Amino acid sequence: SVDFPDYADLVCQKITDLDSRGVLICGSGQGMAMRANKYSHIRAALCWDLTTARLSREHNNANVLCIGSRLIPFGTAIEILNLFLKTPFAGGRHENRVQKLSQPC
What we know:
This protein is of the alpha/beta class. The protein has helices at 4-14, 30-36, 50-58, 74-86, 95-101; strands at residues 22-26, 44-46, 64-68. A three-stranded parallel sheet has the order 1-3-2, with helices on both faces. Helix 3 links the parallel strand 2 and strand 3. Helix 1 (4-14) packs across helix 2 (30-36) and helix 3 runs parallel beside helix 4 (74-86). The protein is globular and about 40 Å long. 27% of the residues are buried.
């Protein structure tokens, strides 16, 4: 048992822009995603299958992948990671939405 926000902070502080990538893993992945998304330059996506991994990159230009180790089998997690890393941002109609995600509320 660790204070997972501390580890999320370490990863997020090393990511300098949207071209950098990070991976955060905890029991559910949810806590890591919540903490990582506190950073304005981070778009963390909690992914549980190949579809959420692909869409998080294509549509949301996510730069941090969050995975729940208690919920996702290891082999599936590796597949999710590989797809997340190789999928480009689609841009186009998604660009305006992604810019809105980075604006403070």
